[in-house]
Structure formats: structure tokens, C-alpha cells
Design brief:
By secondary structure, the protein is mainly alpha-helical. The protein contains three helices and no strands. The longest helix is centred in the middle third of the chain and has 84 residues.
Length: 125
């Protein structure tokens, strides 16, 4: 296709004019066609937006379900941890009692060894 912007008007033939007009008319859209195309695009856009909204709703629903399941699992883990901690606390309490009794036993034994002569004198008298 010729570029008609730099052509000399004296050299512009009728054939060139017809070709130029044909070319321009092929690329010209009527207002009705444009309105029709715009309305089709709007409809397609609305359908696409609706489809995306539905997909987003499904994703949100799935996420909420997954979060709910995770919350339940976390609650179970917390409950098990609390039970385990309370069991450990009970065991630690028993060990503390045993250590305390052992300390008293060792202290008593050490005192008996230190004061054995005095204790024997009291018993013998």
C-alpha cells in the first residue's frame, strides 16, 4: 500500500484515490458496529467478572474450611500438650518429694554419724 501523505497532488491519480478510499473504508467502523462490539465486550467482561467472583467465593470457602480444620487440629495439639505438661508437673512433684526425703535422710545420717558418741551415751545410760 502506498503512503499518500507525501504524494504530490498533481501526481495523484484517480486509481490512487480509489485505492486510498478503499483502504480507508476498510478500516473505518460505523458507530453501530462499534456500539455492538462494545456491548459484546461488556457482556463478556461481566461474564468473566461473575466467573471470577464465583471462583473467589469457592477459594474463600475452601480456605475457611481449611482454617477451621487447622483450628481443630491446633486445639487437639494444645489439649495434648496441656495434658503432657500436667503429667510432667505431677512427675516432677513426685521427684521433688523423693529428693526432699532423701535430703532429710542424708542430713539425719550425717547428724547421726557426727553425734554417734553422744547418741550412744544417751541410749546406754
Amino acid at each position: 500500500m502506498k503512503d499518500y501523505s507525501d504524494i504530490n497532488p498533481n501526481e495523484f491519480t484517480q486509481k490512487d484515490l480509489m485505492l486510498h478510499l478503499l483502504h480507508v473504508s476498510q478500516h473505518t467502523v460505523t458507530r453501530e458496529e462499534l456500539k455492538e462490539d462494545v456491548s459484546k465486550v461488556e457482556v463478556n467482561l461481566k461474564d468473566t467478572i461473575l466467573s471470577l467472583d464465583n471462583k473467589i467465593d469457592r477459594v474463600e470457602k475452601n480456605l475457611k474450611e481449611d482454617i477451621s480444620k487447622l483450628d481443630i487440629k491446633i486445639d487437639k495439639v494444645e489439649k495434648n500438650l496441656k495434658e503432657d505438661i500436667s503429667k510432667l508437673d505431677a512427675k516432677i512433684g513426685r521427684v521433688d518429694n523423693r529428693i526432699e526425703r532423701l535430703q532429710w535422710f542424708l542430713l539425719t545420717g550425717a547428724l547421726v554419724i557426727l553425734f554417734k558418741e553422744q547418741i550412744i551415751k544417751l541410749i546406754v545410760q
